[in-house]
Every structure is written in structure tokens, then in C-alpha cells.
Amino acid sequence: MIDKQVSSAAEAIADIADGASLAVGGFGLSGNPIQLIEALLAQGTTDLSVVSNNCGVDDWGLGVLLNAKRIRKMTSSYVGENKEFERQFLSGELELELTPQGTLAEKLRAGGSGIAAFYTQTGVGTQVAEGGLPRKYDGSGGIAVASPAKDVRTFSVDGEDRDFVLEEAITTDFALVHAMVGDRHGNLVFNKAARNFNPLAAMAGRICIAQVEHLVEPGEIDPDAVHLPGIFVHRIVEVGEGIEKRIEKRTVRGGN
């Protein structure tokens, strides 16, 4: 029996060293592996290169690592809810590789599937393909690092010639993900919207660490209900169902 359970979040992330690359699940604040993130914060790990759809908010999710200046580079598709992110990026403290959302998802999936690169129409005719997107500012308003031009090729699709841009897959040293249920073999089940970037991030990490609300014995999860097979997961830690889960923006309707 392959038992992948570890006793705590701190133990699970103990070998994530300074300068490591991470793929982190979540969309907005849904499905953030916050216990693993907070364990990294407590450990003091720094100079991280993080791939995630977004960077949380100022005091939650990946935002807590950003506020502590532990992140060197973000590869993301959306960064609009974090004021400290904006400040660090514009001041030249943070590097950003801005990537279309679907492309980012496929880059992670491709990396986990052993596919080196793929062609997509997304970004053709824009700076995504042509280069020049600011990746890092110099602190004085100038661009210190810009995105490079990418290979564009023409393919015939349904009898019509169309341009496609080459996108390289993403793999990282580690992946941090959150699931509702997992077993000791690492098979995972995600809850509704938390099944966002979590499975893709898990696939891309050479070592995947999963926090789960409920840990069960092998065989208790119906095989047809497994969202991510345990082959992609290397460590699993139970964090309980009572963990705090925040909503990024709460909108309520007043009474009449």
C-alpha cells in the first residue's frame, strides 16, 4: 500500500526551498490551498516563482506570500484584485508573465501530460504573440523585461488557412492544491467551483502536495467519482472541513 499521508501542512511543504517554482490551484479565492500557503509563509520560503490563475487578495490566498515579498515572479491570467500586486509590479519588484486564461490552463495540462508545446489561435495578432508585453518594470516607468515574440505558423483548418501561436508547456518543482476529499493513495475529488485550476496545477508539479478536507481509506471513493487520480499526487494532508473559506466579493440584495 502506498500511503501518501503526511501529518501536517508544515511537514508537507518542508522541502520547498528558496527559489522553487510552484503551480498553485484556485480561481479567485475558490479552492485556494490556504493551509499550505500559510505553512510556506511560516517557514520563510522566499524567491518563489508561482504559476496560478491569480494572486489572491491583499490578505488572503497567495496574497499573504506576496505581502511578505516572498514571490519573485507570477505567471497568471488575472491580477486585478490585489493592490499590493499592482504596487510591486509597477515598482519593478515583481515580474509578471501575463497569460490568457485558457492558454494558462492548457500550458499546465500539457506540462502534466508530457507535451512540450502546442499551437493555439489565442493571442494571434496581439502582443501575446508579437512580444513587447511588460514583464518587469525598472521602477521609473520604463520596461526592464518585455515578453519575446513567439513562433506563429499557418495551418489549414476546415479548408481555411489560420494563424496559430506556439505556446510552451509549464512544469514546476511543486504543486499546491486543495480538494474536498482524498484517499491515502492520493485520489482526489474537488467540490464544484474548486475544481478549477486545481487538477491542472496538480498535473504540472513534479511533486504535488494536496490538502484535503476529508481523508478516507483507499476504496472509499467510487473510481468513477475521482477527478484527479493519485498518480499525480505525492503527499496529502487532512486539514478538516472547518477551515476558513473566504469569498472574494460578497454582493447582497437589500430587503424591500
Blueprint (SSEs and pairs):
Layout: H1 9-12, E1 21-24, H2 34-43, E2 48-51, H3 63-67, E3 71-76, H4 83-91, E4 95-98, H5 101-112, E5 117-120, H6 127-130, E6 134-137, E7 143-146, E8 152-157, E9 160-168, E10 172-183, E11 188-189, H7 198-204, E12 205-216, E13 235-238
Parallel strand pairs: 1-2, 1-10, 2-3, 3-4, 10-12, 12-13
Antiparallel strand pairs: 5-9, 6-7, 8-9, 10-11
Helix pairs in contact: 5-7
Explain the overall architecture.
The protein is α/β, with parallel strands linked by helices and 256 residues long. Helices cover 20% and strands 29% of the residues. The strands form three sheets. Strands 1, 2, 3, 4, 10, 11, 12 and 13 form an eight-stranded mixed β-sheet that branches. It has a three-stranded antiparallel β-sheet with strand order 5-9-8. The model has no long low-confidence stretch (mean pLDDT 95).
What is the gist of this entry?
This protein has 256 residues and is an alpha/beta fold. The protein folds into 2 domains: 9-115 and 169-238, Glutaconate Coenzyme A-transferase; 117-168, no CATH class. Helix content is 20%, strand content 29%.
